[in-house]
Design goal:
Layout lengths: L2 E2 H13 L8 E6 L7 H11 L2 E3 L10 H10 L6 E6 L2 E3 L8 E4 L2 E6 L2 H14 L15 H10 L3 H6 L4 H23 L7 E11 L7 E11 L4 E4 L1 H6 L1
Parallel strand pairs: 2-3, 2-4, 4-8, 5-8
Antiparallel strand pairs: 1-9, 6-7, 8-9, 9-10
Helix pairs in contact: 1-2, 4-5
The structure holds zinc ion.
The site of zinc ion has 7 residues, from helix 4.
């Protein structure tokens, strides 16, 4: 199910070209984490479609929201197409540890996605009852992380049930939250779709500096100008 970025991009671009997408008539939009490791996937698609409109923030949530989507849609070339690539990311260290990754120039093998792991720890402190009640109100200086924590909270039991596989389950739980939000945002902005819009959702897998990154595609829908899904391209993406 996993593909290297290179194979993913090659196959996705080939399927979309059959719909009419090319380097001139297509706007790429992404909702991926702030982490510089998440830029690799953007760079790989940018090689085909040019610079991307960024809808994402911490952990990959589409924080640009309805307004961001509306602005992005207005930038789609006239009579042209849009590809939205979205999802969380997770690191895998060279020794196979999920949720950590080596970074160039840094000795410490640190967490990845840092925002997601911090949110997971927050949720764990609540589901295990160890967290004490506070009067602290949410601060604007960290509102994205506060939102990530609240958005992942409904998945507390699912994460707890995963036990030792919590770091594997975490990106899938994040994906489900992000997919739900993306659905709402696209629905709300569907009148801005020009010729067609493709939604490529999944989990970005970052590995160390000397190994390729991977992507686990979970959704590849093609919508017409009315925002109606008219083609599920995921099976073709997974078999090509
Ligand atoms: Zn991240």
């Amino acid at each position: 199910m996993y593909r290297t970025n290179q194979v993913l991009v090659q196959n996705a671009v080939s399927l979309l070209s059959k719909k009419g997408y090319d380097g001139e008539n297509t706007l790429l939009a992404t909702s991926l984490c702030c982490d510089e490791l998440a830029r690799k996937l953007e760079d790989d698609f940018n090689g085909i479609y040019g610079k991307n409109f960024n809808l994402g923030g911490l952990a990959g949530f589409p924080f640009a929201g309805n307004t961001g989507f509306g602005a992005m849609a207005a930038h789609i070339p006239d009579d042209g197409y849009c590809l939205v690539v979205y999802g969380p990311h997770v690191g895998i260290a060279a020794d196979g540890t999920v949720g950590k990754v080596e970074r160039a120039g840094i000795d410490l093998i640190d967490t990845c996605c840092g925002s997601a792991v911090a949110a997971s720890n927050y949720v764990d402190s609540i589901t295990n009852g160890g967290s004490s009640a506070t009067m602290q109100i949410q601060t604007f200086t960290d509102f994205q992380q506060n939102a990530v924590q609240e958005l992942i909270l409904p998945h507390g039991k699912r994460l707890a049930d995963a036990k030792d596989n919590r770091m594997i389950e975490l990106p899938y739980a994040l994906y489900d939250s992000q997919d739900m939000l993306m659905d709402e945002i696209v629905k709300g902005g569907s009148t801005g779709i020009k010729r067609g819009l493709a939604l490529l959702g999944g989990i970005q897998i970052n590995t160390g500096p000397d190994t390729p990154d991977y992507f686990h595609p979970l959704r590849f829908d093609y919508m017409n100008y009315r925002g109606e899904t008219i083609d599920d391209l995921l099976p073709a993406l997974l078999t090509s």
